[in-house]
Amino acid sequence: MTAHADRQRWVAVAEELAQTLAIDVLDRDRSGVDPLPQLDLLRESGLTTLLVPAEFGGQGATWSTAVAVIRALAQTDASVAQVLAYHYVNESNAGFAATAEAGERWYRASATNRWVWGDSVNPTDPDLAFTPTADGWILSGTKRFSTGASAGDVVLVSGTVSGGDDDGRNLTVVLERNRAGVRPLGDWDALGQRQSASGSVRFEDVAVGSDDVIAWGSDEPFASLFTPAIQLSFGNLYLGVAQGALAQAIDLVRERRGSWFLSTADRYRDDPFTQRIVGDLDAKIAAAEALADRTGEAFDAVVALGHAATAEDRGRIAVEIARLKIVTNETALDTAHRIFEVTGSSSAKASTGLDLHWRNIRTHSLHDPVDFKRLEVGAYILNGENQPISLYT
């Protein structure tokens, strides 16, 4: 099967799942509870093992396929799409950052158990410390914005070693969600992405052993590709929100009876102002989709280089992904806002749920400031400069 055919197959799986998620997405959004039944649907669909290499029990798909799946789900349920996006990136540490032996072990365990990977790695909240013991470390501290940590099977945790021979080094481990001392606080109360399970986690003297380690911190280009991967996932998440918002708006416009009393048209769908706005938004979304597909395939090419990838390769793809993030951020915000201009006052009813798209994109687009992505692209274009490797760049 060609890569394109494989992508189409998995996008079709995601689109079918999205139809199921659409049935109660508004009720679930209003409840704000963790999406445990929805994660079971992801497991049953095969999407959770999409990026695990086939030789280790997974589907062996490419990143361009994975982000296309995220995009398809985000059209209906951006919260569940976000959890899946973070799952892919968290799990990918087994391929990018782990040793070959450790990577195989984590991949096999993930595929066999159909794990969903949450995380607790927020770098702007560095209140985690690994204190060495005779048997490993004791982990203590609190992390906010820990997506999927309260709903997934395992949690990717990153912190700094405090004391001993490795003092000051960054350590990343994988812990079961129900391990003693791991306490999700259930404090996620955002405007949107309400089912993304993104609350804080407190670690109270958690025993950590060497078998829990997935990687030590590294600026090696290939090992740090999970950061461009998450930004690529965001770009596709935002594009999916824009697509879903416009699709719902089109349905609402087609159902509208009559037209504005000053209009020369008999129906809202024939009004030139309505057609102008829909045409403008559709064109911008189509352009963003083309950019997303091109960028996804470019990322595949860099990933395929493996550890032969250079700093220049990583820097170049990071800029390409930053371009996508800029475009999809603006496109989704603009679309989710302007669709109300053509759907009318009745579309503002809570029962319609058209606001879900705007609340979701407005919330997640604040993850990291898009203005710094603009600077990242500008510095590269003008001066050939790359940003320092981090969990955001």
Automatic annotation (TrEMBL):
<feature type="domain" description="Acyl-CoA dehydrogenase/oxidase N-terminal">
    <location>
        <begin position="17"/>
        <end position="87"/>
    </location>
</feature>
<protein>
    <submittedName>
        <fullName>Acyl-CoA dehydrogenase</fullName>
    </submittedName>
</protein>
<dbReference type="GO" id="GO:0008470">
    <property type="term" value="F:3-methylbutanoyl-CoA dehydrogenase activity"/>
</dbReference>
<dbReference type="InterPro" id="IPR009100">
    <property type="entry name" value="AcylCoA_DH/oxidase_NM_dom_sf"/>
</dbReference>
<dbReference type="InterPro" id="IPR013107">
    <property type="entry name" value="Acyl-CoA_DH_C"/>
</dbReference>
<dbReference type="Pfam" id="PF02771">
    <property type="entry name" value="Acyl-CoA_dh_N"/>
</dbReference>
<dbReference type="GO" id="GO:0050660">
    <property type="term" value="F:flavin adenine dinucleotide binding"/>
</dbReference>
<dbReference type="GO" id="GO:0006552">
    <property type="term" value="P:L-leucine catabolic process"/>
</dbReference>
<dbReference type="InterPro" id="IPR036250">
    <property type="entry name" value="AcylCo_DH-like_C"/>
</dbReference>
<dbReference type="Pfam" id="PF08028">
    <property type="entry name" value="Acyl-CoA_dh_2"/>
</dbReference>
<dbReference type="InterPro" id="IPR013786">
    <property type="entry name" value="AcylCoA_DH/ox_N"/>
</dbReference>
<feature type="domain" description="Acyl-CoA dehydrogenase C-terminal">
    <location>
        <begin position="234"/>
        <end position="368"/>
    </location>
</feature>
<dbReference type="InterPro" id="IPR046373">
    <property type="entry name" value="Acyl-CoA_Oxase/DH_mid-dom_sf"/>
</dbReference>
<keyword id="KW-0560">Oxidoreductase</keyword>
<dbReference type="InterPro" id="IPR037069">
    <property type="entry name" value="AcylCoA_DH/ox_N_sf"/>
</dbReference>
